[in-house]
Write a structure and sequence with these properties.
- This protein is mainly α and 138 residues long.
- 83% of the residues lie in helices and 0% in strands.
- The protein has helices spanning 2-47, 55-78, 82-105, 110-130.
- α2 crosses α3 (82-105).
- The chain is globular, with a radius of gyration of 18 Å.
């Protein structure tokens, strides 16, 4: 019985290690994609002389793009369990966004929590699409 317990916990640790690299890769991809989208959106909003009312919607779109790419990249690297892998990668990305928001502006506002939810949902969607078969989008 003791031998079976050791094998069971060892298998869990092995599975846990299998998630670390893809999830961290996904978080990095999400940060880079979000940063790129932020630069592109800033240029577009500056070119059209957008009002301040457009900025919250643009920030939500940037967060969704970052979350999607985080989940998609993590699921592509893991090659299975896209919903879980993408969701966890996006959760870590949302934690990074929350930490940066907290450092820069003190206590996070209510919009940060809704943005975190958008990041996580977008990461789950990206994760599901990331494990799809080649040429198949469902």
């Amino acid at each position: 019985m003791e031998k079976a317990d050791k094998q069971g916990s060892g298998a869990f640790l092995t599975r846990g290690k299998a998630y670390v690299r893809p999830v961290l890769l996904g978080v990095l991809a999400g940060i880079l994609a979000g940063g790129g989208a932020l630069c592109l959106l800033a240029a577009v909003l500056g070119a059209v002389h957008a009002t301040g009312a457009m900025i919250p919607a643009a920030a939500m779109a940037v967060a969704a793009i970052g979350g999607f790419f985080a989940g998609f990249t993590a699921a592509k690297a893991r090659k299975k369990r896209g919903l879980l892998t993408g969701g966890f990668s996006a959760l870590l990305l949302a934690a990074v966004i929350l930490a940066v928001s907290w450092i820069l502006s003190g206590m996070p506002e209510a919009s940060v929590w809704s943005r975190a939810l958008v990041v996580i949902v977008a990461g789950m969607i990206g994760g599901v699409l990331g494990v799809g078969k080649k040429g198949q989008l469902y």
